[in-house]
From TrEMBL:
GO CC term, one of those recorded: cytosol
Domain GAF, residue spans: 36-149
GO MF: L-methionine-(R)-S-oxide reductase activity
Short name of one Pfam family: GAF_2
Protein's recorded name: Putative GAF sensor protein
Gene3D superfamilies per UniProt: 3.30.450.40
InterPro entries: FRMsr_CS (IPR000614), GAF (IPR003018), GAF-like_dom_sf (IPR029016), Phosphatase_reg/MetRdx (IPR051330)
Family: Belongs to the free Met sulfoxide reductase family.
Coiled coil: none
SUPFAM superfamilies per record: GAF domain-like
């Protein structure tokens, strides 16, 4: 997807989230929107920070890991470092947690309520090298819209 497509998706996300104040409902629809609009994905969802670990939240895809320690795997590393992690080949990522053996690449974006980390958006693909810098920018912008809609 190019940035123009992501901008269009972002407008759809803003309309979808407008007036929604329930975090679970917003996360469920947001992950469904991305799963439906972005090609070559096999998992899209949230992990929420609770008691120094990430706990599975709303998602689209196969059964997933329920809990991920901070600093472990791509999701835990993204949360611990509070930065986006874009991994071209998860099998080469030290400490990768294989929830779905079909996943080959991954992008994880931290989600903040103002400056407080509340979790991560995790997106997996069965395709190696699936996520480009353009995807990263587009998805980070989507997460910013999500944060703005839910947390002001």
């Amino acid at each position: 997807m190019d940035l123009e497509c992501y901008d269009s998706l972002n407008r759809q996300a803003q309309a979808l989230l407008s007036g929604e104040d329930d975090l679970v409902a917003a996360m469920a629809n947001f992950s469904a929107l991305i799963n439906d609009a972005v090609e070559q994905l096999n998992w899209v969802g949230f992990y929420l920070l609770k008691d120094e670990q990430l706990v599975l939240g709303p998602f689209q895809g196969k059964v997933a890991c329920s809990r991920i320690p901070l600093g472990k795997g791509v999701c835990g590393t993204s949360a611990a470092e509070k930065k986006t992690m874009r991994v071209d080949d998860v099998h080469q990522f030290d400490g990768h947690i294989a929830c779905d053996s079909a996943s080959n690449s991954e992008i994880v974006i931290p989600v903040f309520d103002n400056n407080r980390l509340i979790g991560v958006l995790d997106i997996d693909s069965p395709i190696l090298n699936r996520f480009t810098k353009t995807d990263q920018i587009g998805l980070e912008n989507l997460v910013k819209s999500f944060e703005s809609a839910l947390f002001g």
